[in-house]
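Ex. 9. Protein: DUF192 domain-containing protein.
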Amino acid sequence: MLASLPLAACSDESRLVVHTATGDHTFTVEVVDTPEGRAKGLMYRQELAEDAGMLFDFKQERPVSFWMQNTFIPLDMVFIGADGVVRNVHVNARPRDPTSIPSDGPVQFVLEINGGRSKEIGLVAGDRIEHERISNEK
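Predicted structure tokens for DUF192 domain-containing protein:
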């Protein structure tokens, strides 16, 4: 019998703040920074709390792309530079879709949150992300 583990039991969990024109929005994120962790991501998960997400750390800036082949919930993908500035946002990636979703240029981080959540909080390119792994130097 498989047990459903809380986000904290799966890996490194931490606080992330999104600074938008509508205010500051806090998320509890699971951080993945290994090739295996990044490859699995949120695949096979059936739900994600409204204030939860996953932060992918690629350790250096580079072009990246994601797909939703084995992902069962719609997600927003927030592509973030090493400096914490949002480069682009892909809203409502479709579950089980094999189409590649690329960053618009090099990024170091990708934040996945519930589909449509970025629009709810007014998150757009140019906004800033605050997290212990992100430099935030201007």
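Check your answer against this statement. The helical segments are 7-10, 35-40, 117-120.
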